[in-house]
Structures are given as structure tokens and as C-alpha cells.
Design goal:
It holds the Pfam family Peptidase_M48. GO terms for molecular function: metal ion binding; metalloendopeptidase activity. The protein has 302 residues and is mainly alpha-helical. It has 2 domains: 112 residues, no CATH class; 147 residues, no CATH class. The protein is built from 11 helices and 5 strands, in the order H-H-H-H-E-E-E-E-H-H-H-H-H-E-H-H. A 5-stranded mixed sheet has the order 1-2-4-3-5, with helices on both faces. Strand 1 and strand 2 form a beta hairpin. Helix 1 packs antiparallel against helix 11 and helix 2 crosses helix 3.
Length: 302
């Protein structure tokens, strides 16, 4: 009962923390740290929520959560008799865990298929350009810049975008897309998209996904700033916004979405001071503590 209670308390704390975190003011100052904390909150919440039900379900075995599940799988007799609430908790916990895993795997499979189809399409309609080596160019008058993540990643830009942007702005946009590829931001976004499918009615989940999407773009902006002026990147974003950028294909990561342009431009033009190191390490420590706590409560027999 101790494990179930502790996991339920951890799940509640993660849910309340996520609700408060959606309105946090410091995240723009350290987007990578905020992304790590969001990931820790999401994973710890999933483990704690399903774990609390399963821990209560296997309580008659008096072996802890993980060892209790192993005993159930092996068909061993419990120490005390099963009853309706424990059986219901077992079915509910296993169902919730299966749904979370299945939805995540399904979302990943759909994304991989979309990227594979898009790579095939790019092989037919895109071209190389010596002016932008290593980048695929689409002969389209609209403004578009995005990346196809994965083991065979590609950065794609349209001819319209190349005409729209100056050389410095083009360098900034391509550096932004390269950052998405290098840091595998697609993997960061995947579990939040999956959770949104499971809980489409939840405002916290919806806000969390929007926050992480924005933080991922800001993290890529920070990487691009190493290779170009922040103002050049800001003007490139504004040019895309006013020109009506083409929508990013499903499963890809683009430079511009209408919902985040001005927040990113304001951050680039008038940056806030960086988050102080003790706060940075404190939030990273909190992230580690959440994950360790959730994993430990699954393993340690209490």
C-alpha cells in the first residue's frame, strides 16, 4: 500500500507541476532545461499514474510493484486473496499502460511512414543547388523551409524562400533547421503528441504540447545564433510570416508556425538574461529526482 500511495502522490504532484509549469516565466531563458523538465514531468506522470493502479492491484502478493507483476505473470498464488477492487485496478492499470505504449508506437510508425513517403517524393521533385550544399531545393514559388528528421535526415528549402531571404537570413534559417536535425527535436515532440491523442480533452496536455513545440523552436534558434546574427534570424522569421509560409508537411519540422513567430522574434531582438546556473542545475536536479523516484517505486519492494 505504501508504493501505491507514493506513486499516486507523485502522479498528483506531476500533474499539478505541469499545470503550474505551463505559465512559468523562466522557460524562454533556458529552453533546453525547460524541455528536459517537461520530459521528466511527462514520463514520471505516466509511470506514476499506471504504477499506482498496478501497485494497488498486486498488493495481495506483498512483493512490491515489479515483483508482484512478475508473480501475476507466472501465475503464482497471492499471499492474501484477490478481491474485486484489486482485480479492477490490475485491468485498469494494464489497460492504461498498454494504451500509452500503443499510442506512442502508433504515432511513431505513422510519422516514419510519412517521412519515408516524403523522402521518396523529394527524390523525384527536389534538386541539389551548389549555392546551398547539402540542402534539397524545391522549385516552388512559396516560402518553405523544413527538415526531414531521421537516420537519413534532410534539410529542404523552396526556391521561393531562397528568393525571399538575403544570404545572411538564408544561413540563419538553414542553421535553425540543421539544429532540429542534430538535436533530434522530433523525438522530443513525439511523446507529447501521443499523450495529446490519449487525452485530447485535457487543457494541461494541450498547453504542454504547445509549450514544448515553442521551446524546441527556441532551442533551435539558440543553436542558429552561433552561426548568424540574432536579428538576421528574426528578420527571416518575419519575412516568412508576412509572405505566408507554406505549411510544414506532416512528420517534418519547420522553421515557422503562425503561433510562435512573434514570441521568437521578441526573444531574439530583446533577449532576457540567461537563467542563473544554480536555477539551471536545480531544475535539472528536479528532473532527475522525478525520474529516479518513479523508477525506484516500480522496482523497490515496499
Amino acid at each position: 500500500m505504501i508504493t501505491a500511495t507514493a506513486l499516486a502522490a507523485l502522479a498528483t504532484a506531476c500533474a499539478l507541476g505541469a499545470w503550474r509549469f505551463t505559465s512559468a516565466c523562466w522557460t524562454y531563458r533556458a529552453p533546453r532545461v525547460a524541455i528536459v523538465l517537461w520530459q521528466a514531468l511527462g514520463l514520471a506522470w505516466g509511470l506514476a499514474t499506471t504504477g499506482s493502479m498496478l501497485a494497488y492491484a498486486v498488493q495481495p502478493y506483498d512483493r512490491g510493484l515489479l515483483h508482484g507483476l512478475i508473480a501475476v505473470a507466472q501465475g503464482r498464488e497471492p499471499v492474501s486473496p484477490w478481491d474485486g477492487p484489486h482485480l479492477f485496478a490490475l485491468v485498469a492499470g494494464l489497460t492504461a499502460l498498454a494504451v500509452l505504449v500503443a499510442v506512442t508506437l502508433t504515432a511513431a510508425a505513422q510519422t516514419l511512414r510519412a517521412r519515408r513517403r516524403h523522402r521518396t517524393l523529394l527524390a523525384l521533385i527536389a534538386r541539389d543547388d551548389p549555392f546551398v550544399p547539402g540542402v534539397r531545393v524545391l522549385d516552388h514559388p512559396g516560402a518553405a523551409a523544413y527538415c526531414v528528421p531521421g537516420l537519413r535526415s534532410q534539410v529542404v528549402i523552396s526556391a521561393g524562400a531562397m528568393e525571399l531571404l538575403s544570404d545572411d537570413e538564408l544561413t540563419a534559417v538553414l542553421a535553425h533547421e540543421a539544429a532540429h536535425v542534430r538535436e533530434r527535436h522530433d523525438l522530443v515532440l513525439l511523446p507529447f503528441g501521443a499523450l495529446r491523442r490519449v487525452l485530447p480533452w485535457s487543457k494541461v496536455v494541450r498547453d504542454a504540447q504547445a509549450q514544448v513545440e515553442l521551446l524546441v523552436e527556441m532551442a533551435a534558434d539558440d543553436r542558429a545564433r552561433r552561426y548568424c546574427s540574432p536579428r538576421r534570424l528574426a528578420t527571416a522569421l518575419l519575412r516568412f510570416g508576412t509572405a505566408g509560409a507554406m505549411p510544414t508537411p506532416h512528420g517534418m519540422l519547420g522553421s515557422v508556425t503562425a503561433a510562435n513567430v512573434m514570441a521568437r522574434v521578441n526573444r531574439l531582438v530583446k533577449p532576457d538574461p540567461e537563467l542563473q546556473p544554480h536555477f539551471r542545475y536545480g531544475y535539472l536536479g528536479l528532473s532527475a529526482a522525478l525520474l529516479v523516484s518513479a523508477a525506484s517505486l516500480w522496482v523497490i519492494p515496499l
